[in-house]
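Case study B.
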Amino acid sequence: EIVLTQSPGTLSLSPGERATLSCRASQGVNTKYLGWFQQNPGQAPRLLIYGTSNRATGIPDRFSGSGSGTDFALTISRLEPEDFAVYYCQQYGSSLTFGGGTKVEIK
Amino acid sequence: QLVESGGGLVQPGGSLQLSCAASGFSLTTSAIHWVRQAPGKGPEWVGRIRSKAGNYAITYAASLRGRFTMSRDDSNNTAYLQMNSLKYDDTAVYYCTPQRAYGGNLAFDIWGQGTKVIVT
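Model:
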Protein backbone atom coordinates (compact mmCIF):
# COMPACT_ATOMS: atom_id res chain seq x y z
CA GLU A 1 0.00 0.00 0.00
CA ILE A 2 1.27 3.44 -0.93
CA VAL A 3 1.59 5.74 2.07
CA LEU A 4 1.16 9.48 1.55
CA THR A 5 2.89 11.87 3.96
CA GLN A 6 1.75 15.47 3.98
CA SER A 7 3.71 18.41 5.32
CA PRO A 8 3.53 20.62 7.16
CA GLY A 9 0.84 19.41 9.53
CA THR A 10 -0.31 22.99 10.08
CA LEU A 11 0.34 26.09 8.00
CA SER A 12 -0.31 29.46 9.64
CA LEU A 13 -0.72 32.20 7.04
CA SER A 14 -2.56 35.46 6.48
CA PRO A 15 -5.17 36.15 3.78
CA GLY A 16 -3.45 37.15 0.56
CA GLU A 17 -0.37 35.04 1.23
CA ARG A 18 0.77 32.07 -0.83
CA ALA A 19 0.37 28.54 0.52
CA THR A 20 2.41 25.54 -0.61
CA LEU A 21 1.37 22.12 0.65
CA SER A 22 3.51 19.02 0.14
CA CYS A 23 2.55 15.38 -0.38
CA ARG A 24 5.24 12.71 -0.52
CA ALA A 25 4.49 9.11 -1.51
CA SER A 26 6.28 5.99 -0.24
CA GLN A 27 6.62 4.84 -3.87
CA GLY A 28 5.93 6.26 -7.29
CA VAL A 29 2.38 7.38 -8.04
CA ASN A 30 0.70 7.54 -11.43
CA THR A 31 0.09 11.26 -12.00
CA LYS A 32 -3.33 10.46 -13.48
CA TYR A 33 -4.41 9.10 -10.10
CA LEU A 34 -3.26 11.86 -7.74
CA GLY A 35 -5.81 14.29 -6.32
CA TRP A 36 -6.26 16.98 -3.71
CA PHE A 37 -9.27 17.65 -1.50
CA GLN A 38 -10.39 20.48 0.74
CA GLN A 39 -12.49 19.76 3.82
CA ASN A 40 -14.29 22.06 6.19
CA PRO A 41 -15.67 20.92 9.58
CA GLY A 42 -18.81 18.84 9.26
CA GLN A 43 -18.59 18.68 5.49
CA ALA A 44 -17.62 16.05 2.97
CA PRO A 45 -14.28 16.30 1.19
CA ARG A 46 -14.41 18.54 -1.88
CA LEU A 47 -12.29 17.66 -4.89
CA LEU A 48 -9.97 20.51 -5.91
CA ILE A 49 -7.42 18.86 -8.18
CA TYR A 50 -7.41 15.57 -10.08
CA GLY A 51 -4.77 14.02 -12.29
CA THR A 52 -2.10 15.99 -10.37
CA SER A 53 -2.77 19.33 -12.05
CA ASN A 54 -6.35 19.53 -13.33
CA ARG A 55 -8.77 21.77 -11.50
CA ALA A 56 -12.16 20.26 -10.77
CA THR A 57 -15.27 22.02 -11.98
CA GLY A 58 -15.83 25.36 -10.27
CA ILE A 59 -12.44 25.49 -8.55
CA PRO A 60 -10.83 28.94 -8.83
CA ASP A 61 -7.53 29.29 -10.64
CA ARG A 62 -5.68 30.34 -7.50
CA PHE A 63 -5.49 26.58 -6.79
CA SER A 64 -2.86 24.66 -8.73
CA GLY A 65 -1.28 21.24 -8.46
CA SER A 66 2.07 19.91 -9.61
CA GLY A 67 4.48 17.05 -9.19
CA SER A 68 5.50 13.62 -10.37
CA GLY A 69 6.96 10.39 -9.07
CA THR A 70 6.82 10.61 -5.30
CA ASP A 71 6.61 14.39 -4.75
CA PHE A 72 3.50 16.43 -5.29
CA ALA A 73 2.34 19.88 -4.24
CA LEU A 74 -0.80 21.97 -3.97
CA THR A 75 -0.33 25.72 -4.25
CA ILE A 76 -2.85 28.38 -3.34
CA SER A 77 -1.55 31.57 -4.91
CA ARG A 78 -3.40 34.08 -2.71
CA LEU A 79 -5.35 32.85 0.28
CA GLU A 80 -8.96 33.92 0.51
CA PRO A 81 -10.88 33.69 3.83
CA GLU A 82 -12.77 30.62 2.60
CA ASP A 83 -9.51 28.74 1.90
CA PHE A 84 -8.69 28.19 5.56
CA ALA A 85 -9.48 24.51 5.90
CA VAL A 86 -7.87 21.05 5.95
CA TYR A 87 -6.37 19.69 2.74
CA TYR A 88 -5.75 16.04 1.85
CA CYS A 89 -3.85 14.47 -1.00
CA GLN A 90 -5.11 11.17 -2.39
CA GLN A 91 -3.80 8.49 -4.72
CA TYR A 92 -5.37 5.43 -6.30
CA GLY A 93 -3.31 2.43 -7.23
CA SER A 94 -4.29 -1.00 -5.94
CA SER A 95 -6.10 0.86 -3.17
CA LEU A 96 -7.21 4.39 -2.46
CA THR A 97 -5.10 6.16 0.15
CA PHE A 98 -5.15 9.62 1.67
CA GLY A 99 -2.48 11.68 3.32
CA GLY A 100 -2.75 12.74 6.93
CA GLY A 101 -3.81 16.27 6.01
CA THR A 102 -2.50 19.82 6.26
CA LYS A 103 -4.50 22.36 8.20
CA VAL A 104 -4.26 25.88 6.78
CA GLU A 105 -5.11 28.28 9.58
CA ILE A 106 -5.32 32.03 9.89
CA LYS A 107 -2.21 33.57 11.37
CA GLN B 1 -26.88 14.25 -5.92
CA LEU B 2 -25.57 11.39 -3.82
CA VAL B 3 -27.27 10.42 -0.57
CA GLU B 4 -25.88 8.01 1.99
CA SER B 5 -28.23 6.62 4.61
CA GLY B 6 -28.59 3.82 7.12
CA GLY B 7 -26.20 5.00 9.79
CA GLY B 8 -27.03 5.19 13.47
CA LEU B 9 -26.21 3.89 16.92
CA VAL B 10 -25.25 0.23 17.20
CA GLN B 11 -23.77 -1.96 19.90
CA PRO B 12 -20.41 -3.71 19.46
CA GLY B 13 -20.93 -6.91 17.49
CA GLY B 14 -23.99 -5.49 15.77
CA SER B 15 -24.72 -4.93 12.09
CA LEU B 16 -25.80 -2.08 9.85
CA GLN B 17 -26.48 -1.73 6.15
CA LEU B 18 -25.62 1.59 4.55
CA SER B 19 -27.08 2.78 1.27
CA CYS B 20 -25.71 5.14 -1.34
CA ALA B 21 -28.36 6.43 -3.72
CA ALA B 22 -27.73 8.65 -6.72
CA SER B 23 -30.18 10.98 -8.38
CA GLY B 24 -29.68 13.07 -11.49
CA PHE B 25 -26.87 10.90 -12.78
CA SER B 26 -26.15 7.22 -13.22
CA LEU B 27 -23.86 5.13 -11.05
CA THR B 28 -24.17 2.23 -13.46
CA THR B 29 -20.91 2.70 -15.36
CA SER B 30 -18.82 3.77 -12.36
CA ALA B 31 -16.87 1.88 -9.75
CA ILE B 32 -18.18 2.94 -6.33
CA HIS B 33 -15.80 3.54 -3.46
CA TRP B 34 -16.68 3.68 0.21
CA VAL B 35 -14.59 5.95 2.43
CA ARG B 36 -14.95 6.52 6.14
CA GLN B 37 -13.70 9.23 8.44
CA ALA B 38 -13.39 8.72 12.18
CA PRO B 39 -13.81 11.76 14.44
CA GLY B 40 -10.79 14.05 14.13
CA LYS B 41 -9.07 11.76 11.62
CA GLY B 42 -8.41 11.80 7.90
CA PRO B 43 -10.38 9.83 5.32
CA GLU B 44 -9.82 6.07 5.21
CA TRP B 45 -10.67 3.84 2.27
CA VAL B 46 -13.11 1.02 2.98
CA GLY B 47 -13.22 -0.58 -0.44
CA ARG B 48 -14.50 -0.50 -4.01
CA ILE B 49 -17.04 -2.32 -6.16
CA ARG B 50 -16.57 -2.15 -9.91
CA SER B 51 -19.28 -1.76 -12.51
CA LYS B 52 -20.83 -4.51 -14.61
CA ALA B 53 -18.08 -3.94 -17.19
CA GLY B 54 -15.60 -4.79 -14.43
CA ASN B 55 -17.58 -7.87 -13.44
CA TYR B 56 -18.62 -6.18 -10.21
CA ALA B 57 -15.19 -7.02 -8.78
CA ILE B 58 -14.79 -6.00 -5.17
CA THR B 59 -11.67 -5.04 -3.23
CA TYR B 60 -11.70 -4.30 0.48
CA ALA B 61 -9.18 -2.55 2.66
CA ALA B 62 -7.10 -5.32 4.22
CA SER B 63 -8.04 -4.35 7.78
CA LEU B 64 -11.77 -4.71 7.05
CA ARG B 65 -11.84 -7.84 4.96
CA GLY B 66 -14.35 -10.38 6.20
CA ARG B 67 -16.61 -8.06 8.17
CA PHE B 68 -17.82 -5.67 5.47
CA THR B 69 -19.62 -6.59 2.23
CA MET B 70 -20.25 -4.27 -0.68
CA SER B 71 -22.96 -4.71 -3.29
CA ARG B 72 -24.87 -2.66 -5.82
CA ASP B 73 -28.27 -2.55 -7.51
CA ASP B 74 -27.85 -0.79 -10.82
CA SER B 75 -31.59 -0.91 -11.53
CA ASN B 76 -32.09 1.33 -8.48
CA ASN B 77 -28.91 3.37 -8.99
CA THR B 78 -27.85 2.41 -5.48
CA ALA B 79 -24.85 0.86 -3.75
CA TYR B 80 -24.76 -0.83 -0.37
CA LEU B 81 -22.31 -1.48 2.43
CA GLN B 82 -23.20 -4.28 4.83
CA MET B 83 -21.23 -4.01 8.05
CA ASN B 84 -21.13 -6.91 10.50
CA SER B 85 -19.36 -7.57 13.80
CA LEU B 86 -19.01 -3.84 14.34
CA LYS B 87 -16.29 -2.57 16.66
CA TYR B 88 -15.79 0.72 18.50
CA ASP B 89 -13.13 1.61 15.90
CA ASP B 90 -15.77 1.50 13.15
CA THR B 91 -17.31 4.70 14.54
CA ALA B 92 -17.06 7.18 11.67
CA VAL B 93 -18.90 9.10 8.99
CA TYR B 94 -19.23 6.85 5.95
CA TYR B 95 -19.17 8.28 2.43
CA CYS B 96 -19.61 6.78 -0.99
CA THR B 97 -18.06 8.29 -4.10
CA PRO B 98 -18.14 7.16 -7.73
CA GLN B 99 -14.87 6.81 -9.60
CA ARG B 100 -15.00 9.02 -12.68
CA ALA B 101 -12.51 9.76 -15.41
CA TYR B 102 -11.76 12.89 -17.37
CA GLY B 103 -9.25 12.53 -20.15
CA GLY B 104 -7.91 9.38 -18.51
CA ASN B 105 -7.44 11.12 -15.16
CA LEU B 106 -9.33 9.62 -12.23
CA ALA B 107 -11.54 11.98 -10.25
CA PHE B 108 -13.64 11.53 -7.14
CA ASP B 109 -15.74 14.63 -7.64
CA ILE B 110 -19.09 13.58 -6.27
CA TRP B 111 -19.63 12.98 -2.57
CA GLY B 112 -22.72 12.72 -0.45
CA GLN B 113 -23.14 14.29 2.96
CA GLY B 114 -22.15 11.01 4.59
CA THR B 115 -23.96 8.87 7.14
CA LYS B 116 -22.75 8.65 10.72
CA VAL B 117 -22.16 5.30 12.40
CA ILE B 118 -21.64 5.26 16.15
CA VAL B 119 -20.68 2.00 17.84
CA THR B 120 -21.48 2.36 21.51
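The first strand of chain A starts at residue 4 and ends at 7. The remaining cases will be described in the next quarterly update.
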